[in-house]
Amino acid sequence: MNKKSATFPVLVIDDVAGSKGPAQLPGPSNISHFAGRPRPGEKIIKGVLAFSAALTVVITVGILIALIVPGVEFFVNVPIWDFLFGTRWTPMFADADYGVLPLVSATIWTTVLALIIAIPFGLGAAVLMSEYAHPKLRAVLKPILEVLAGIPTVVYGLFALQFIQLVVFKEWLQLDTGAFSVLAAGLVMGIMIIPTIASISEDAMSAVPMSLRQGSAALGANRMQTSVRVVFPAALSGIIAAIILGVSRAVGETMIVAIAAGSQARIVTGPLEAGQTMTGFIANAALGDSRVGSLEYNTLFAVGLLLFIITLIINMISIRLVNKFRQVY
Amino acid sequence: METNSPDQPASSATVRPTPSDVALPDQPDAVLTCDNVDVYYGSFKAVEQVNLGFGLNEITALIGPSGCGKSTLLRSLNRMNDLVEGARVAGTVSFMNEDIYGPGVDAIEVRRRIGMVFQKPNPFPKSIYDNIAYGARVTGMKVSSMDDLVEEALTRAALWDEVKDKLKQSAYGLSGGQQQRLCIARTIAIKPDVILMDEPCSALDPIATMRIEDLMQELRKDYTIVIVTHNMQQAARVADRTAFFTALPDETTGNRTGVLVEYGKTGQIFGAPNDKRTEDYISGRFG
Fold it and tell me: What is the rounded CA–CA span in Å between residue A7 and residue A4?
């Protein structure tokens, strides 16, 4: 650009000052001094980017419509009140009941159990990696965590069913439990979520400026105090985002619960009971032979819609929380 | 609020002996001393063979060109270098005749007694009140009233009148100069004996700089202050004694290692330096 400008008429500062009237620029006045070269490539790139952005929106809306249409058909046949607050879920039986609470109860159990495992261990791993670990240790730990995140969930499901439930719970601990339990599913789901929470929280904590840690150390704080009182609050919005992502993954996780939690839809009252989650139901029933447009078919979408709304609410709450606790540094 | 004004202190280049120069003893009554101190980063020697004593209730300025190791030395005085991977100190740094790197010495306790103010203001993303209370809370200081402690620290840092109505607001709403005074207030709130300042005014405008300098004169009655500065006028204005450092390249490796060239009363350093290099530096011929 600088080289180019030399070929243009040079504007003399004295003229601008106004002492000799308006600046006299040499050359024909109808040629802009600022005309650039045309950049057709830029338009194409912009078009591609806009298309990509539009596509995600269109797909999301499409999924939503695909969920809502059969969902609404379902609620024409089943009162929404009976669906939300009914305690018996037997859509495939002759005397069908469509109370979704049993599915919701199993989802709550597995999600809460998963978070009880994932939050402390995930955050602990994050604090260790960002505040304590020698760079060499960190270089080993982070890839291991990422491998953990890359294990297919079906493997986790198998692990929960065959090892945790059968070997650990029944053989070693002699617990009074059947072939399935929400505890085994929740526990393993928690292990699965640890890397998500650890990795995102660690990013948030590492982003806290070193100067804050130095300031804290210079006031006589030890590492733990610096981590807990300065770094953690400063990274809190990122940490909350990590936890919410973990919650969303737990609520939406399908394979582990479909394999290890069981397939009987009933209100779960204890961690050693079996139960069917919302996702577990969809996975099981979608493999069946329900006719398109039938009530059983629409039932799938009603549950899917509920799942979608729950996730949406969790996301909205998280945005609120993040804004509330945000500490800008 | 704090804008440039024609009477900015930085422009007054007049070098004068500080008024206390005459009353100052020839040798400092040292509370903090360096004996043959070398500071290394890994195998790289950043500072070599420093012998210095920082006098009680005096302001000592460390000056010199970039890379001469003055900040490195400052950070070794309260073991902030411990936080840097591979940093190591040889020789002895002692506070009231106790080796601060000795066995059984808790670096955290060292930093509590020898506080530090940094180049860029670094308030915590907390309220003004919590910033001041932080040190007392983490060190478990016995305080009868935290409110009084906060007020006293802010008053001593000449910030109280400006912030007394917004103590619960974020410290990030303050201007750069106010933030730096907050950081000084935070440091004096835990009642250290020595305050180390690492170019505390380099991110500030001249008016804010002047305020900090006034504050230093005020604090000097109770504290021993060591300040690293790039601004020679600042050293001449505020310091009782000045130490001039320079960097010498190693003949074989070419690595530049900082050495102490000259140390004396500020008036003497700026008025009649003994070393040619000091004279060249302060007269602007190099650095």
Answer: 6
Instruction: Give the β-pairing of B30-41 and B87-95.
Output: antiparallel
- Which residues of A are less than 8 Å from B187 in CB distance? 218-219
Question: Which CATH superfamily includes the segment(s) A101-325?
Answer: MetI-like (1.10.3720.10)
Domain boundaries of chain B, sorted by first residue: 28-124+194-282
Q: A298 near A123, Cβ under 8 Å?
A: no
Q: How far is it, in rounded angstroms, from Cα A302 to Cα A296?
A: 10
Interacting residues of A305 by C-beta distance below 8 A, sequence separation 6+: A67, A68, A71
Which of B78, B119, B122 should one mutate to test binding to chain A, selecting the residue with the greatest count of A CBs within 10 A?
B122
Q: Is A222 on the interface with B (CB under 8 A)?
A: yes
Cα angle for residues B22, B23, B29 (degrees, 5° grid):
120
Tell me the CATH number for domain B28-124+194-282: 3.40.50.300
Please state the ipTM of this predicted complex: 0.85
**Is B80 in Cβ contact with A219 (below 8 Å)?**
no
Average pLDDT over residues B46-61: 93
Question: A328 CB near a chain B CB, below 8 Å?
Answer: yes
Q: Are B36 and B218 in contact (CB under 8 A)?
A: no
A139 interfacial to chain B (CB closer than 8 Å): no
Write out chain A residues lying below 8 Å of B139, CB-based: 219-221
The per-residue pLDDT for range B166-182, each reduced to its tens digit, is 999 999 999 999 999 99
